[in-house]
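input
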Amino acid sequence: MFSLIYVSVIAGELMHYKYRPSSSYLIGAALSVNNRIGVDLVDNRRIKKYLSGSFLRHILSEEELAEYSVRKDPITYVAGRIAAKEAILKCLVDRPITDFTKITITNGPFGEPMVHFEDYVIQVSISHEKDYTVAVALIQA
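output
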């Protein structure tokens, strides 16, 4: 399965279309320019030293810790969650976050990350490469 993402700016509106040929549907949404975008990049090589000890209990929620324990590649899982939560933090300039465990990121039916944090509507994309993980967060204001 592959996805094609098309983004354009038309008349002050951000238009986002995502097409998944394997499931034959098109999703389109007009997003106001008042929305906030955050991006974060994590060096996966630095994560390995944090996989033991109490560090994970300060970053991952209980649900994420349970998922982490069954993952085949825990480094990329933790790197993805850190990058996503940092990207979310950059979006929430009016609501500082001091406890990352309050944000939970689960996987949806297609493996897409789903963010659970208070009543915010947050979309996140996480991508992994051998040594790096990047996340982009969009908060609909």
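quick obs: The first strand starts at residue 4 and ends at 10.
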